[in-house]
Design goal:
The chain has helices at about 50-55, 70-85, 130-135, 255-260, 400-405; strands at about 1-5, 35-45, 65, 90-95, 105-115, 115-125, 140-155, 160-165, 170-180, 185-200, 200-205, 210-215, 220-235, 240-250, 270-280, 295-305, 310-325, 330-345, 350-355, 370, 375-390, 405-420, 435-445, 450-460, 475-480. It is mainly beta. It folds into two domains: about 30-115, Ubiquitin-like (UB roll) (Roll); about 115-480, membrane protein fhac: a member of the omp85/tpsb transporter family (Porin), CATH 2.40.160.50. Residues about 1-30 have low confidence and may be disordered.
Amino acid sequence: MRVVFTAGIWLCLFFFILPVTGRAQRIPAEQSDTHIVIDAVELTGNKTTKDFIILRELPFSVGDTLPVSDFPEQLRLAKENLNNLLLFNFLEITPLASVDNPELITLVIQVEERWYIWPLIEVKLEERNLSTWLQNWDFKKITIEAGARIDNFLGLKHKLVVAVHGGYQWGAFLGYRDISLDRKGKHFMSMDMQWNVSHNLDVFTSEDKPARFNIPDIILEKSLESRINYSYRPNIRTIHNISVVHEYTVLADTVLRMNPHYWGNELLSRNAFKLNYRYRLDQRDYHPYPLNGYFLQAGLNTYITSDATVRYAQLNVGLQYFKQLAGSRWYVSSVFSGAASLSNAQAFILEKAIGYDNNMLRGYEYTVADGQSFAISNNTLKYNLLKKKTFTLNWLSFLPKFSKIHLAVYANAHFDMGYVHNKWDYHRNVLSNQFLYAGGLGLDFVTYYDMVLGIDYSVNKQCQNGFFSWKNFFFSIKVPFI
């Protein structure tokens, strides 16, 4: 779990001044009742971003003829697509009809670009989430990362990251992502390499919590991972993704003495390969915090050691649905995720289900449930307490990329359910092989640079800590990193 300390991002949570309102432009009423023609597209404000990066995200092209009744929907899709590039803090699309021929429309797209070059000074809390770390406030479990990240590298939406880290964990990362192989944006490639040296390792699960061992004088794990990723985007909102990963890992014999089933065999070093496929259909309005639309994902993950003694395959699926209720300030969402796997060996590293990655049940942030297959349903009712407001911090006018910010606040009521099947008998854990559920209330603060701060109060099936305990509060911070 990462917490990024970057100047300007947090300011929006503490300062409120008078909002700056925008202005709406309308196509003249005398326009044709049948069709319009996209006569031209004019771009302003994109000093770094290349024009074709913006133009290829539009659901129409110059010269296209559109029914007037479809035009508002096409403008909505265009704005959502451009927002989901995550390159601009603000954008506005204004249609202007020709004086001589009202059927000819010129679109003026005005954007305000973000800050793209970030010196990385990052504090990584070495727990699965912020709430878990706050239980003990263990400042030894902190890794400091330093380096640089360039978003929108060369104005092509490429992302370049170079970083080293030390403290609780040691290592380095080099990544070059979102490399477009053609101007139409249908083919992309990414390449990553990560090296880690660790004195700390989760070796098994005990009492439904990962048992992390820290042995300062012993390197428990050394690893080098290389990844090549290819993406095919046949249309703007559909992506096919294939990744090939090579891992070289060396373990200390201490790890296998503590858990002989840690990774499926008795060897202390291994070369392993992953071949993963993922399909994504994304119709959400805003990826970091969607309010309308749906998302479908399905994939196959495979893992095999070079000697084929450990073989693993997992099928996974995810479905998300978001809806605003009848133009009101109420919103509902339902998110389902699930997976089923097969393996020829018992391996702790291949049995991570609820509580890992994005497979979370609110109310179970402090625990995990291991197994070979799982299903999760997250259901939320939201109310928009504060509509999206734009503020200008005049005293930050010398930093134009940070002085203009936006903020929206949502209250929510949530109810989550899940189940994990585990065929192995882990007598120290009880959450697997039973129906789990939890409910609660929360607040979400949504602001610029795609940051979402969440505060939830949840009570789970086990009623852990009682109904009125501070330990039922859970905190989350979401900031896209790489």
